[in-house]
Amino acid sequence: MTTTHFRNGVSNQTPGNPLFEFPYLDPTKYTTYFNDFLTYHADEWTITTTEAGTGSATEALASGQGGWLLLTNAAGDDDLDFLQLKGEAFKYVATKQMFFKARFKVSDATQSDFVMGLGITDTTPLDTTDGFYFIKADGAATMDFNIEKDNSATTNSSVATISDDTFLTAAFYYTPTGNTGDGEFQIFIDDAQVASQTTLTNATDDEDLTVSFGIQNGAAAAKTMTIDYILAAVER
Questions:
Q1: 214 FRET partner, CA 20 to 30 A, in 74, 137, 167, 195?
Q2: pLDDT for residue 181 is more than 90
Q3: CA-CA distances (angstroms) from residue 28 to 15, 16, 51, 168?
Q4: What is the DSSP letter of 90?
Q5: In the chain, what's the furthest Cα-to-Cα distance?
Q6: DSSP string of 124-161?
Q7: What pLDDT was estimated at residue 222?
Q8: What is the CATH number of domain 34-235?
């Protein structure tokens, strides 16, 4: 295998742009958030918690390849722990690319509810009114992908089957010019495309969004969610 070296750098800007001679790819083209959870600071997050059962919900780093964040609920039915990154830094624009990818697992694939994606900041992320997100309901081991605006959702059902304590990656990519020439959401599980959505009536275009995730118990026993990494990016 050979390696190509660009000793003078690589540019993705056009001549005349002030960063054309900048020897790296222009970091201002996208608003980007990436967290590998080598560190965790609670003050960066809006945390919504219910602790009706025994014990207390916790958010803590866990040992694992690449760094993990572990959410553990108290032990009551419907106890929950949801995190939303402070500051709503992402917004869907029909003419701009958007990316999201996360690797995570839950302890109980059936007796739990969870959400992972982008949404507005609120106290009920499982019942959010606006966002682009993966969601799983209690009593089912299948995960859906929702495109939602003003409490009206377009759902891609059963895009993945969840297994107990088993990592998967869930991702979506919005391209302004999809396979049909219109805007399109492409949905990926474990890096394979499983669905696409070109009906964008419910695409949230009037709200700023943030990284949102968390888990709710589906039975009176503590459930956990482990997050390996999260990436979110939107073209400026």
A1: 195
A2: no
A3: 16, 16, 41, 30
A4: B
A5: 63
A6: -GGG-SSEEEEEE-TT--EEEEEEEETTEEEEEEEEEE
A7: 97
A8: 2.60.120.200
133 DSSP β-pair partners: 117, 146
DSSP 209: B
Residue 161 confidence (pLDDT):
98
Confidence (pLDDT) at 125: 87
**Average model confidence (pLDDT) across the chain:** 95
Token pair, residue 65, equals: 């390849």
**3-class SS at 42?**
helix
**129 has a pLDDT exceeding 80:** yes
Q: Give residue limits of the domains in the chain.
A: 34-235
Helices (H) and strands (E) in the chain, counts: 0, 15
- Residue among 207, 94, 232, 77 nearest 151 (CA): 207
Contact at 8 Å (CB) between 112 and 136? yes
